[in-house]
Design brief:
The complex is a heterotrimer of chains A (271), B (308) and C (513). With 271 residues, chain A is mainly alpha-helical. Chain A has helices at 3-21, 54-90, 92-106, 110-121, 125-152, 155-162, 167-203, 215-224, 231-258. In chain A, helix 1 (3-21) crosses helix 2 (54-90). With 308 residues, chain B is mostly helical. Chain B has 13 helices and no strands. Chain B has helices at 2-29, 43-52, 59-71, 86-121, 126-140, 143-157, 171-200, 203-210, 215-227, 229-233, 235-252, 258-268, 271-299. The longest helix of chain B has 36 residues, at 86-121. The radius of gyration of chain B is 24 Å and the shape is flat. The two termini of chain B are 14 Å apart. The model of chain B has no long low-confidence stretch (mean pLDDT 81). Chain C has helices spanning 42-47, 73-83, 91-94, 101-110, 119-128, 134-137, 147-159, 177-194, 205-211, 229-234, 239-247, 311-318, 344-347, 367-379, 385-394, 411-423, 441-458, 469-475, 493-498, 503-511; strands at 2-13, 16-27, 31-36, 56-63, 66-67, 84-87, 165-169, 197-202, 214-219, 222-228, 264-276, 284-296, 300-304, 326-331, 334-335, 350-353, 429-433, 461-466, 478-483, 486-492. With 513 residues, chain C is α/β, with parallel strands linked by helices. Chain C is globular, with a radius of gyration of 25 Å. The chains are: A mainly alpha (271), B mainly alpha (308), C alpha/beta (513). Chains in contact: A-B, A-C, B-C. At the A-C interface, helix 6 and helix 7 of A face strand 16, helix 14 and helix 16 of C.
């Protein structure tokens, strides 16, 4: 199951270092060649209608999309883990209230709230991170809470209590290391979700602003000129879809291996 | 069952209220209002307009007024489409969105459940691998990529189906509904497969096999209902996904649905319209979650108990 | 009239031979039992001939005149439907959650092409298996019935179509001790009455001896001994048979002598533990009521009862690992605070050993760290390598275990590590919460013997929570019997068994073998 991760790693590396190898910047306008076709005038993928190098824009767009996705997913991870761990560990009334809030928020058409926020507070990239991360933390909180509750009643936690280990230390040294794999698996699944959300916002004209670009913006631009230049849609679309699929596949495999029956320790037979 | 519905409503109503109030406050906080257009207005004109639209009262007062109006179905006038009230706009565009969304959900369920069940029955074989790969692919394809692509292939290249606007008959529905249903059908397929595969490993299926009951009968009687439980739980998120997807589809295919009005409204600060849409969509999702719980209870009697 | 016969039968999974060259013969009305430790191949032997296992059978398997080996699945299914009835170990999961009792029994009665039974027929069938109030139970879903009730329904389903052969795979191991006898008597009674043959798979040797006519002892797929059940039980011919018989605690064995206890240490007075009902229901559950007992140095007090009797709750309350809503506890006359207020000094007095060995160790930690934790937390000192080696040796593990990860250990090894962890802080008392119940009989015996050795060498007091009265009889000085949260009787061992006072105790003694 390494292939999807290798593909993603390759794309990420390309996006990070590729632009440095190109003579063109992503916002640089080449007045001499506008709407150039493939492999013309030193532009491998041609230029768009403003004369900007398509390949540079593709690479930078990928870089921005991936950065936003990772940052937002990390935000979701941190909020979700803290919320879920507290709810699961403290239990009782606190847990009920905290989870009731999560359930209530789940019902929201979150996309619309985010759009609202974007519109209200303008389009800063920080807001994009926070807004998107805020959408995804709910699932993480639920998953972490479930895991913490399951672990809390396992005998080894009781044994730690009997050994005189104080609560916070139990949480840190016994519980969190055991939820880390699951949390990371869900993190891997969150990143593609965030990529889609970011692209969606960009599609609506609400995400990343000019002169920066993202895969969502590129797809949007490509869709507008798809009847004359299908490559403009297909290329960014392909990169977007590839990244999402690979991360989803890898994340799902890891998640399946770590939850359910995979998690139960396999007992070796007694001699 | 009745307890379940009451409990849901109990949490639903405060949630809805919270959403409305929150959105209201957010909109009011936004810099720039609907009257900051291309030409600056004279102060008196501005004051008069604001008074006419009730924008000069205090925030809590405005909220109470608004809530009161909603009760009677009055969502106020649209600030951008000056000749129409929000209720009229919604009445015009909601049916289209519901039609497309509803058909998409139906199509997604049929395709998804069939594919998922087939996959589980052929678990481990190539049919299973192929179907599940296809399902993952579908969930990874954003609607704003598939929409234009489908329009490109079937509309422009093959010239088979219309790509923009409503036409006569139903052919205008085909591409939008298919594009909208694809991601959801992928998700449903995976859930159905997981559900059935999980069931087939259960003891009660083993018991039915031991009794010599025919495989098709086992599937129909013993495995099907619990297998669909994960799909039922997904109904709420599915509705949310379809609503967001609808925004894209309506834009790409040029359909006058509610999603498109929402985006326009948000960009143009049309407060009443935006609030109405958010309220409506939130209610729809809550409704779907309730529906999901009811279906879940029918599928698995253990869920009908009020206790944990 | 032979109903079921296996001749030179072997079970293969791939290339591996799981069961080797087994032969048996069951006549109508006869009960043949397959016994042995887990992994011995007994379930495989019972399931493979009927196409219900992952294995592949070789050799002859005859069911009522028809050869089963090599039979196509659809034909096999028809034979199963007509001629056999199956009973599995877990009653809850064997019933389809969304179908009512009525639907289950009807389907079972009609599976061989029979007519739909009338409501009166159904009530009669359920009544015959000892289900109370059968008419109202018909409408119920499985999760509303208790474990014993479900197993009765399943027995009704297994016999509804008048099968020739009943296959029961550990039919009572998931049930309460008091129920086991009732269910086994029901099964054997039905067989004799209806002239059914029964193939019984069980790891509980003590009850097999009572129920079966013929017995096969299996070890790792080989038949070690075969013959009349009573004869084998009384005087096993094979080495394996002898070890197995000796390992299981029985009521008929002589009571081993125990050391004399010292001065009183622990006292519990009128302990009360109350829980709120879960979910939306209002009201409380009194898990433990008015529980009082004492424990002396070097003494083992067994707390015996069925599931739901409150024994585990009481044990944990005393050990400071569970809630206490009323009553008091004392250690050497000083008050012992409940869970939230225990100091490190208090914690050092008693340590637990739990039922599930693998779940009681942090899967990601190394054995050395697991064992060191109590010493680190309670005394602030990390034990050095020599101390660890010594402790591992004391619990019967070699020094190289210290570097292993908990997740790689077997059940018996994990339990020994758990015991080492419990001992490192030098407690005066151990709480043993069903500490051997999940282990294989032979492994369980080893662990039990370890406890006895430790009690002698360290003068440990032990609070033994168990459902197994025979086990309590083997190792406890005094026994307290619990029912519905109350200690209904508490007496020294000899007195309890010679002259039981309460109904609960008498029923428990009768149900134990």
């Amino acid at each position: 199951m390494r292939t999807p991760l290798i593909i993603v790693a390759f794309i990420v590396l390309l996006a990070m270092f590729g632009p440095m190898l190109l003579p063109w910047g992503h916002a640089q306008i080449d007045w001499d060649s506008v709407r150039a076709g493939l492999m013309s005038d030193g532009h491998i993928l041609g230029t768009d209608d403003l004369g900007r190098d398509r390949l540079a824009r593709l690479l930078v767009g990928t870089r921005i999309t991936m950065s936003v996705a990772l940052a937002a997913a990390l935000v979701a991870l941190v909020i979700g883990v803290i919320w879920g761990a507290v709810a699961g560990w403290v239990g009782g009334r606190t847990d009920e209230v905290m989870m009731r809030i999560v359930d209530g928020l789940y019902a929201l058409p979150f996309m619309f709230i985010v759009i609202l926020l974007m519109v209200v507070f303008g389009r800063s990239i920080l807001l994009v991170f926070i807004g998107i991360g805020a959408v995804e933390w709910l699932t993480m909180a639920r998953v972490v809470r479930g895991e913490v509750m399951a672990l809390k009643s396992r005998p080894f936690v009781l044994a730690a209590e009997a050994a005189g280990t104080p609560g916070p230390r139990i949480l840190l040294r016994h519980i969190l290391p055991n939820i880390a794999p699951v949390a990371i698996a869900y993190l891997m699944l969150t990143v593609p979700q965030v990529v889609m959300v970011e692209s969606f916002l960009s599609f609506l004209g609400l995400g990343v602003q000019e002169p920066l670009t993202s895969l969502g913006i590129l797809v949007n631009e490509g869709a507008a000129e798809m009847d004359v230049n299908p490559a403009a849609l297909i290329l960014p679309g392909l990169v977007l879809v590839t990244v999402i699929i690979c991360l989803t596949l890898a994340g799902e495999r890891w998640r399946d291996r770590l939850t359910g029956t995979g998690r139960a320790a396999r007992m070796a037979p007694d001699q | 069952m009745g307890q379940l519905i009451l409990r849901r409503l109990f949490t639903a109503i405060p949630t809805l209220l919270a959403i409305i109030v929150l959105s209201f406050i957010l909109m009011r906080l936004a810099p720039g209002g609907p009257f900051d257009g291309e030409r600056p207005l004279a102060p008196e004109t501005r004051a008069a307009l604001e008074a006419a639209y009730g924008l000069d009262k205090s925030l809590p007062e405005q909220i109470m007024l608004y809530l009161g109006n909603i009760m009677t179905g009055d969502f106020g006038p649209s600030l951008v489409y000056r000749d129409f009230s929000v209720t009229e706009l919604v009445a015009q565009s909601l049916p289209i969105s519901l039609l497309i969304g509803g058909l998409a959900l139906l199509l997604a369920s049929v395709i998804g459940i069939s594919a998922g069940l087939l996959s589980a029955l052929r678990a481990g074989k190539w049919a299973d691998e192929v179907l599940m790969l296809a399902a993952t692919l579908l969930t990874a394809l954003p609607t704003f990529v598939t929409g234009p692509l489908l329009a490109l292939i079937f509309g422009l290249w093959l010239r088979l189906l219309p790509v923009s606007g409503q036409g006569d008959g139903i052919s205008w529905l085909i591409l939008p509904v298919i594009a909208l249903s694809l991601p959801v059908s992928g998700a449903i397929a995976k859930l159905a497969r997981a559900g059935l595969a999980g069931q087939l490993a259960q003891d009660h299926i083993r018991m039915a096999r031991a009794r010599g009951i025919k495989p098709m009968t086992i599937l129909r009687r013993h495995a099907l209902r619990p297998a669909l439980v994960p799909v039922a739980s997904y109904l709420g998120p599915a509705a949310a996904s379809l609503l967001t997807g609808a925004v894209v589809i309506e834009t790409v295919f040029g359909l006058p649905g509610l999603g498109r009005y929402f985006v326009q409204g948000a960009l143009n600060r049309d407060y009443p319209l935006v609030l109405a849409v958010v309220t409506l969509y939130a209610s729809l999702i809550i409704l779907f979650n309730l529906l999901a719980d009811l279906i879940y209870g029918w599928l698995d009697p253990r869920m009908r108990e009020p206790s944990a | 009239m032979s109903i079921f016969a296996l001749s030179n039968y072997s079970v293969m999974i791939g290339d591996k031979r799981i069961v080797d060259n087994l032969s048996l013969d069951i006549d109508a009305g006869q009960i043949v039992a397959l016994a042995g430790a887990s992994g011995s191949g007994k379930s495989m032997t019972a399931m493979t001939p009927f196409g219900l296992s992952a294995g592949h059978g070789e050799g002859s398997a005859m069911l009522d005149g028809a050869q089963l080996t090599g039979l196509a699945e659809h034909r096999m299914a028809r034979l199963r439907a007509a001629k056999t009835g199956f009973i599995f170990q877990q009653p809850l999961t064997a019933m389809t959650p969304h179908r009512t009792v009525r639907q289950h029994v009807e389907e079972a009665a009609m599976q061989a092409g029979g007519a739909r039974p009338s409501k009166a027929d159904l009530i009669a069938m359920l009544g015959r298996v000892g289900l109370t109030d059968p008419a109202s139970k018909l409408r119920q879903f499985p999760h509303r019935l208790s474990g014993g009730e479900r197993q009765r329904v399943l027995i009704a389903c297994a016999t509804a179509h008048q099968p020739k052969l009943l296959i029961a795979d550990e039919p009572t191991s998931a049930l309460d001790a008091s129920l086991r006898r009732d269910i086994m008597d029901l099964l054997t009674g039905l067989c004799r009455e209806d002239g059914m043959a029964m193939l019984l798979v069980s790891h509980d040797l003590a009850s097999v001896e009572r129920d079966a006519d013929q017995l096969l002892l299996l070890q790792e797929g080989r038949v070690e001994e075969q013959g009349a059940a009573a004869a084998i039980a009384a005087a096993p011919a094979s080495e394996y048979g002898r070890i197995l018989m000796a390992a299981t605690p029985r009521m008929s064995e002589p009571m081993p002598a125990l050391e004399t206890p010292g001065e009183p240490l622990l006292e519990a007075r009128d302990l009360h533990v109350r829980f709120k009902k879960p979910g939306w229901r209002s009201g409380h559950i009194d898990a433990v009521r008015d529980a009082s007992f004492t424990l002396a140095r070097g003494e083992t007090l067994a707390i015996v009862g069925g599931s739901g009797s409150g024994k585990s709750t009481l044990g944990r309350a005393v050990a400071g690992l569970g809630p206490v809503t009323g009553g008091e506890m004392f250690w050497k006359g000083e008050p012992l605070p409940p869970r939230g207020k225990r100091t490190r000094a208090h914690r050092g007095l008693m340590q637990p050993v739990f039922q599930d060995p693998v779940a009681s160790l942090n899967p990601r930690w190394q054995v050395a760290d697991i064992i060191a934790e109590p010493a680190l937390q309670l005394h602030g000192l990390r034990p050095d390598a020599d101390q660890l080696t010594q402790l591992l040796d004391e619990v019967g593990l070699t020094a190289d275990y210290a570097q292993r990860r908990a997740i790689t250990l077997s059940g018996g090894q994990a339990q020994r590590v758990a015991i080492a962890r419990a001992l490192i802080a030098e407690p005066a008392m151990l709480l043993l919460d069903e500490a051997t119940s999940s282990l294989d009989p032979l492994v369980a015996q080893g662990v039990s013997q370890l406890f006895s050795r430790l009690q002698k060498s360290r003068g440990l007091s032990m609070l033994l929570i168990t459902h197994d009265l025979a086990l309590a009889r083997r190792c406890a000085h005094r026994i307290a019997v619990m029912q519905d949260g109350e200690i209904v009787e508490c007496a020294p061992r000899d007195i309890l068994f010679d002259a039981p006072q309460s109904q609960a105790t008498k029923k428990l003694i009768a149900a134990s073998v």
